[in-house]
């Protein structure tokens, strides 16, 4: 090679400005992906999964806000199958079952407040499951206390009396616990409460039938 010939150009490394430009492009792509991921009109997709099975008229935390206790409210049993609204931890859906027995009890007791049910020619009756009201050891559950509270108010305010009917003698002890609570805790006169066993009355086992009689009906008869 001649001395006057220039040497071949030296191959240089990737310039620094190109590396900086690549970093900017990477950051922009990252922000764009995050924007597509979280900028959605379905915020529940990223919420914590709510409780899927619970019972109670109100609850705190993820299951809902605490609701103040009111008269004639009922306990709701919610069952959620593993399908419906997706979350990061699973899925959920609205309840598909509730407790029709307790719903009927509370609606029946609430109906006693209306004037039309004080007609002396009629009486009122409802069936309630004993398993939800009192235990075999004599303990009265929360729903049983709620039932007795409403019955106590009704029996003290209105000229009526009540009879508790069961179809089996084995259901008598728990029924007597409810009647005793009405007398001792809610001030109902013992003469306004009766208990009877009716084998052929059609009352389901482990249930009690609450029958309200108005005093005007007795005088008419």
Question: What does this protein structure show overall?
Answer:
By secondary structure, the chain is α+β, with helices and mostly antiparallel strands. The protein has 2 domains: 47-92, no CATH class; 100-220, OmpA-like domain (60s Ribosomal Protein L30, Chain: A, 2-Layer Sandwich). Helix content is 32%, strand content 17%. It is built from 5 helices and 8 strands. The strands form 3 sheets. The protein has a 4-stranded mixed sheet with strand order 5-8-6-7. The longest helix is centred in the N-terminal third of the chain and has 23 residues, at 16-38. The chain is rod-shaped and about 130 Å long. Mean pLDDT is 70; it is low at 48-64 and 217-221.
Class by SSE composition: alpha+beta
- Count every helix, treating DSSP H or I runs of 4 or more residues as helices: 5
Number of strands: 8
Mean pLDDT level: 70
How much beta, percentage-wise? 15-25%
For the terminal residues, how far apart are their CA atoms?
Answer: 138 Å
Radius of gyration: 35 Å
Major beta sheet summary: 4 strands, mixed
Low-confidence stretches: 48-64, 217-221
Taken from the alpha-carbon principal axes, the silhouette is: rod-shaped
CATH architecture of the largest domain: 2-Layer Sandwich
Q: What level of helicity do the residues show?
A: 25-40%
CATH superfamily of the largest domain: OmpA-like domain
The ordered string of helix (H) and strand (E) elements is HEEEEHEHEHEEH
Which CATH class of the largest domain is shown?
A: Alpha Beta
Counting structural domains, the number is 2
Identify the strand order in the major beta sheet: 5-8-6-7
């Amino acid at each position: 090679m001649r001395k006057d010939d220039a040497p071949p150009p030296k191959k240089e490394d990737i310039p620094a400005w190109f590396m900086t430009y690549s970093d900017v492009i990477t950051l922009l792509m990252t922000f764009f992906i995050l924007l597509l991921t979280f900028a959605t009109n379905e915020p529940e997709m990223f919420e914590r999964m709510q409780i899927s099975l619970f019972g109670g008229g109100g609850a705190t935390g993820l299951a809902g806000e605490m609701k103040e206790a009111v008269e004639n409210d009922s306990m709701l049993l919610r069952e959620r199958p593993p399908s419906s609204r997706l979350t990061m931890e699973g899925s959920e859906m609205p309840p598909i079952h509730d407790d029709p027995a307790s719903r009927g009890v509370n609606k029946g007791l609430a109906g006693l407040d209306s004037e039309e049910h004080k007609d002396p020619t009629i009486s009122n009756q409802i069936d309630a499951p004993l398993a939800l009201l009192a235990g075999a050891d004599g303990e009265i559950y929360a729903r049983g206390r709620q039932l007795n509270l409403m019955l106590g108010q009704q029996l003290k305010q209105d000229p009526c009396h009540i009879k508790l009917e069961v179809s089996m003698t084995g259901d008598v002890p728990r029924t007597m616990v409810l009647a005793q609570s009405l007398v001792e805790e809610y001030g109902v006169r013992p003469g306004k409460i009766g208990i009877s066993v009716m084998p052929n009355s059609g009352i389901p086992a482990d249930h009690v039938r609450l029958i309200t009689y108005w005093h005007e009906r007795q005088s008419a008869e």
